[in-house]
Description:
By secondary structure, the protein is of the alpha/beta class. It folds into two domains: about 20-135, Rossmann fold (3-Layer(aba) Sandwich); about 150-245, Arc Repressor Mutant, subunit A, CATH 1.10.10.10. Helix content is about 35%, strand content about 20%. The protein is built from eight helices and 13 strands. The protein has helices spanning about 25-40, 50-55, 75-85, 100-105, 120-135, 175-185, 195-200, 210-220; strands at about 20, 40-45, 65, 90-95, 110-115, 150, 155, 160-165, 170, 190, 230-235, 240, 245. Strands 2-1-3-4-5 form a five-stranded parallel sheet, with helices on both faces. Strands 9-8-7-6-13 form a five-stranded antiparallel sheet, with helices on one face. Strand 7 and strand 8 (about 160-165) form a beta hairpin. Helix 1 packs across helix 5 (about 120-135) and helix 6 (about 175-185) crosses helix 8 (about 210-220). Mean pLDDT is about 80; it is low at about 1-15 and about 135-145.
Amino acid sequence: MSTPFPHPAGEDGAPPSLIFVIEDDPDVARLVLATLKEFGFNGEGFQTGAAALRRMQTETPDLCIVDLGLPDMDGLDLLRRITTLSSAGVLILTGRGHAADRVMGLELGGDDYVVKPFEPRELVARVRSILRRRAAVPGSASGRQRRYASFLGWRIDCAANILRAADGSEHLLGTAETQVLRCFVERPHQILTREQLVGSRDLLPSDRSIDVRISRLRRKIERDPHDPTIIKTVYGAGYLFAADVSWS
């Protein structure tokens, strides 16, 4: 169950950054949400990873504050799924102080790592730092604004699952195809593993579901699906999206 704050206008007229707080300890969640509200952020709280992921189907946050000790899934797995499905930043907030957890969290895409107990104002400072760093990166606009991606004459509406060609013809993509294509356009010119693209860290070697999705996408966007130039296979590593992407 989420606990939303209203969306007051920011100083520049834009809504404040939206932050998901995924924390099962109600006292900690209340403290974090109240602190975020005090400093002008818009926050929503979730007690489980599943609840946060469901909410992300309709609203993409600018940043997620993730506790690693969640009741329904491992926080590191949730972190990986967040970074696969969205462009949101991630701040790990946890009682786990082991170096291995810290390193794993950062390697999986976490932007920063705070160990409990914490000073609320320091947490806000780290939140602001992450948002500033991400805003300074070209193409890293808020996920709420990153709906339309264009590449090589194609345009994808990530919210409506519609892929539009240069001639105006449209393809309605399945949810799984949209997820894969969104992963690609979020991270062009980067090698993505099959696990990253399918959204599962426990993908079996015999699972060919991602290959089927890639094949379907190639049939839509490649001139020659058998000799692809956009979605390239990097043998032994994964796939690479070899096109420049612009967002609107």
